[in-house]
User: Fold these one by one.
Assistant:
Number 1:
Amino acid sequence: MKPVKVGICGLGTVGGGTYNVLKRNAEEIARRAGRKIIVEEIGARHTNPDCDTKGIQLTDDVFAVAKNPEIDVVVELIGGYDVAKELVLTAIEHGKHVVTANKALIAVHGNEIFEAAQKKNVMVAFEASVAGGIPIIKAIREGLSANKINWLAGIINGTGNFIMTEMRDKGREFSDVLAEAQALGYAEADPTFDVEGIDAAHKLTILASIAFGIPLQFDKAFTEGISKITRDDVQYAEELGYRIKHLGVSRRTDKGVELRVHPTLIPESALIANVNGVMNAILVDGDAVGQTMYYGPGAGSEPTASAVVADIVDVVRTLTADRDNRVPHLAFQPSELSDMPILPMDQTETAYYLRMNAQEKPGVLAMITSILGGEGINIEAIIQKATSEDQVPVIILTQSVLEQKMNDAIAKIEALDEINGSVTRIRVENFGR
Ligand SMILES: NC(=O)c1ccc[n+]([C@@H]2O[C@H](COP(=O)([O-])OP(=O)(O)OC[C@H]3O[C@@H](n4cnc5c(N)ncnc54)[C@H](O)[C@@H]3O)[C@@H](O)[C@H]2O)c1
Ligand SMILES: N[C@@H](CCO)C(=O)O
Ligand code: NA
């Protein structure tokens, strides 16, 4: 059979890894795909010192790649929204299949891109966009297609997990670890995407769509980052038997779908609480299978390339297959997507960790517990720290409650003269309890 010709756009961390893996494993990959896969052209502004591209056609115009009549599959690895979107739509318009690692693009413009792809009968594959090398899209979309999925939760940003692990285990400074994550090629071009949970929310949006059969709705995701977590919170959580992880959670409820990214206390005995460094993990709860967990490197050159190349192989395998019966982009047939709403954050339910500074006076604890009781919030545990100062940290673990009630309770606690400053709240998920 004729070789399949691929055009790679962007030759940075992921583009470079993709080129090298395709080259190094060419024989093995051809045995799997049923035909040879050749890199016909590379479109990139910069060359990559890790890649020997001798003999390959190079251009700095990625649109030339998207329009090159020789090319069957365009691999978008430039990142970002605008140029990437135009590039992908141009490739589709020219009848090319597309493989991308760009979660920002899929989460924000995916509905439009998939519609264009369906019209042109081409595939857009995006396994590398979520959790790097972990084949989580394939697992949910194909491996779990028998199930009604109840919820999923994951550590889906490698940079953030790397930062939190290094800070906790080695006491390193935030900025120092972030710089290392950038040097290792883990971080986004704008690392606030990693730290503030935007990147994780992009990925969660994609996972929720393929799990529940809903259109991509990134604008409705709730996002809270890791920059405000203090060493004290990490320590108090550990005293209570928990680890703090930056988690994306999406749960189907009677009222709608939860879509939220925030720091979360997880019981230290839970497997997912022990996922460290750049590793990612996603827990998926299906009605037939129960809970399954997927673990592996969430970022980095070749781990991500592993997913990009697997997508290229997938595309190649379907080139000769019936194009009306491909695996749908969002797992469900496009005409079968549901209009189940995304729940506003104040309508979600979780347990909470609260930390506040109370003045050292008799009766303050009673005031706090009475406010919580008044909102119908049950307390699981309280720690009051003795200090030499005239204010004491009070840490409270609550049972599960509607976020709206917790907002009201926190506002009332913060209004007390006996409480200094604001109340820190971290949500709690009791996996494995
Ligand atoms: N780095 C990771 O671990 C990782 C993992 C999963 C997904 N991703 C995603 O993969 C994509 C690429 O990330 P990366 O880490 O490889 O980025 P990178 O910055 O290392 O590489 C991007 C490359 O694209 C080139 N480029 C950008 N715009 C261009 C344009 N208009 N024309 C020509 N070249 C252009 C840049 O010169 C650069 O070499 C992003 O969407 C990112 O979110 C990255
Ligand atoms: N910046 C992302 C890359 C992988 O998507 C992360 O750290 O997880
Ligand atoms: Na993946």
Number 2:
Amino acid sequence: MTDVSVIGCGHMGSALVKGLARTDTHRVTACDLDTSALEAVEPYCAQTTTDVAEAATAEVVFVAVKPRAIEAVLTGLDLPADATLVTIAAGVPRSFVQSHTDATVIRVMPNLAAETGNMAAAVAWDDPDETVAALLDDLGEWVEIDEEHMDVATALNGSGPAFVYYLIQSMAKAAVAEGMNADAAETLAAQTFKGAAETALRSEESLEALIDAVATEGGTTIEGMEVLWDSDVESVIDETLGAAAERSRELAGGFDDE
Ligand SMILES: NC(=O)C1=CN([C@@H]2O[C@H](COP(=O)(O)OP(=O)(O)OC[C@H]3O[C@@H](n4cnc5c(N)ncnc54)[C@H](O)[C@@H]3O)[C@@H](O)[C@H]2O)C=CC1
Ligand SMILES: O=C(O)[C@@H]1CCC=N1
């Protein structure tokens, strides 16, 4: 049983609390200044508190407040050297967080699918931490990266769910334009993303081979793929991730570690 606290139970913090509640190997303290945020997570955790000192006794402390609020939280958080602080804030360097705490700092870029155990997370740490690795395993899939790639991870898997929702919506809209009922179109589009993602994750085949497997010779898929290959979709996606990554770099510019 790992004692975990989550400071900041808004969109991302509450997803972490709910995701951790899916297994019974954690004792979670949820901390927020906003009592309505705490009420929303109360059924999923051992205790809720508005007092950051109560959250400071956990073995692993997730800080899940907005980047602009992180300095105030760190200043009020007195963690011992044997604690681990996990920072998930976009654009906030690990060195900045480390300069405010004696705890070991691990930087993670998670996403909202933590709530359902389907999170994609990028992790930057000095040394692998088995306890944090086990927590992340419970929340979904994670990969270790160098911190210099955190800006692009923030764009790819942190912001990524929003981009994917947009693509699901676009495919569903196209089906509706062909006359399909909107609910049916959204279910089919979303489930198609889920199924394709599951295959992409589990298959040994390359993505090109997976496309080929769908595209029967003389069939329908190749007609659609020709449109995609001839379009500027790839460069638009490149710009989309580029803009989000650039914003992460801009945010980082507002923090220094002194
Ligand atoms: N929303 C998302 O999809 C993702 C967010 N993140 C990161 O997670 C962090 C939180 O983002 P969101 O959940 O979207 O923001 P949010 O605004 O939904 O939640 C922030 C929460 O922190 C609480 N808070 C503020 N000051 C506090 C304090 N001093 N003590 C305790 N609680 C305090 C607020 O009351 C609020 O409930 C950000 O740093 C963001 O970069 C990372 C990955 C994905
Ligand atoms: O939009 C944001 O800044 C946060 C970080 C990644 C996803 N949401």
